[in-house]
Amino acid sequence: MSRTDWEVVIGLEVHSQLNTASKIFSGASTAFGAEPNAQASAVDIALPGVLPVLNRGAVERAVRFGLAIGATVAPKSVFARKNYFYPDLPKGYQISQFELPVVQGGAITIRVGEGDKAYEKTVQLTRAHLEEDAGKSLHEDFHGMSGIDLNRAGTPLLEIVSEPDMRSSAEAVAYARALHALVRWIDICDGNMQEGSFRCDANVSVRPRGQEKFGTRREIKNLNSFRFLQQAIDYEVQWQIERLEDGGTIQQATVLFDPDSGETRMMRSKEDAHDYRYFPDPDLLPLVISEEWIARVRSELPELPEAMKARFVADFGLSAYDATTLTASKEVAAYFQATVDAAGKANAKLCANWVMGELAARLNKAELDIAASPVTPAQLAGMVSRIADNTISNAIAKKVFEALWNGEGGGSADAADQIIDQQGLKQVTDSGAIEGLIDEVLAANPKSVEEFRSGKEKAFNALVGQVMKASKGKANPGQVNELLRRKLQA
């Protein structure tokens, strides 16, 4: 069988660390980077007699997420004990939710690919449930031993489980990116993957195309970058296909991805729910969420990415691709909206081009977030307005943008105007002046004139370039094209 004869089936489980100041069942801090075990309270380390107290802020963030994805927020949910032994799990069990999770259902729409091959797809979610994180085992700094850091023990997590709706690593990455953007957008998670705030587990299986029954899945644990997520899935898919085509079978298992080798390796055979002996936690009452509480959280939600995307298309005439790019993060969307507010709705497409083009490229090169951009939305809007009213051309605008990036113009909203005036960058729109330049260029380039008149269109572009060079880039390109063609055809 060829690769195209197999269908890939992927579901993701994402652990999103909720950005509360304290842990889910204790008052210990969740701040990152503290000395090992400095933030492990009596509750976190399971000293005898201690009792958990649920963090209201963690619940509220779960409700916010449920509303954002159009899910059902359960009026009553239950915490359970997930029993297993591991050195960094002090209680011998993890408090999680099993049969009755706080968030049930919902969906996220993703956009996969670029250009003509791009398509949209809706990924259904199974559930999202609250749970506590475990501690961390440290191996690198100890010879022949492991250290245990319980600072993470009890950190609040929202585990977000998708249906097995994805059919390629590209779809899985698009979903993970959309989910990552959403949890940051609604301010429930900082999304810092390097610090472990957003971690993905990928359930991967393959089946002959057309078969309804799912293949045996293997779960790739703890992927903390989108690049690793794609590489791990691609390797695992190829491994499973080759094993099946060689006559082997797939054993349900948990595997780890090694970024250095680019390969997955088996960690343990995969447990099922009964292996964990789930049962309701006797120390915690059922979680009851009132309609009034849900209504209040709903009223405090910001405009969501999908709604903003639709508005950008309807109000500004942007393409679906542009709208998706501009709503990829809350910070980019806010920057673009502020730029349009200052430049005017009629210039929205021009604003979009500059935010996604020159600005994005410079930020990427400088390794800066858009919030740290040296060019403010007001300054970019001022420059866009001068392009729109033909004060400067797009080519000259690049010089103005460079000056803005370097802090010229005094940093004020009218910095672009000051730069244009100080550097004499105003576009030449006087027809007489442009005609004079054209006459000089035609006289100096008789060969190009003759080539154009014999049907060679490239000669025309060469003459346009000469006129723009003679004007030091200041002549209005549209007028140059129109007047030059008129003279050549006279």
Describe the structure.
A hairpin with an 8-residue loop joins strand 9 and strand 10. The protein is elongated and about 95 Å long. The protein contains 15 helices and 17 strands. The chain folds into three domains: 3-293, no CATH class; 303-423, no CATH class; 431-489, Arc Repressor Mutant, subunit A (Orthogonal Bundle), CATH 1.10.10. The termini are far apart. It has helices at residues 56-68, 169-185, 226-245, 291-299, 305-316, 320-326, 330-343, 348-366, 377-388, 394-405, 415-422, 431-444, 446-453, 457-470, 477-488; strands at residues 6-17, 72-73, 76-77, 80-83, 93-96, 103-104, 107-112, 119-132, 136-138, 147-149, 156-162, 198-208, 218-223, 253-258, 263-269, 279-280, 287-288. Helix 10 (394-405) packs across helix 11, helix 12 (431-444) packs across helix 15 (477-488) and helix 13 (446-453) packs antiparallel against helix 14. The protein has 490 residues and is of the alpha+beta class. It is an enzyme of class 6 (ligase). Belongs to the GatB/GatE family. GatB subfamily. It catalyses: L-glutamyl-tRNA(Gln) + L-glutamine + ATP + H2O = L-glutaminyl-tRNA(Gln) + L-glutamate + ADP + phosphate + H(+); L-aspartyl-tRNA(Asn) + L-glutamine + ATP + H2O = L-asparaginyl-tRNA(Asn) + L-glutamate + ADP + phosphate + 2 H(+).
Dominant shape: elongated
| Helix proportion | 25-40%
Task: Determine the structural class based on helices, strands and strand pairing.
Answer: alpha+beta
User: Number of helix segments?
Assistant: 15
In terms of per-residue confidence, which ranges show pLDDT below 50 for 5 or more consecutive residues?
none
Strands, total number: 17
What integer is the average pLDDT?
A: 91
Distance between the termini: 67 Å
- What gyration radius follows from the Cα positions, in whole Å? 29 Å
Catalytic activity: L-glutamyl-tRNA(Gln) + L-glutamine + ATP + H2O = L-glutaminyl-tRNA(Gln) + L-glutamate + ADP + phosphate + H(+); L-aspartyl-tRNA(Asn) + L-glutamine + ATP + H2O = L-asparaginyl-tRNA(Asn) + L-glutamate + ADP + phosphate + 2 H(+)
Protein name: Aspartyl/glutamyl-tRNA(Asn/Gln) amidotransferase subunit B
GO molecular function, one term: asparaginyl-tRNA synthase (glutamine-hydrolyzing) activity
EC number: 6.3.5.-
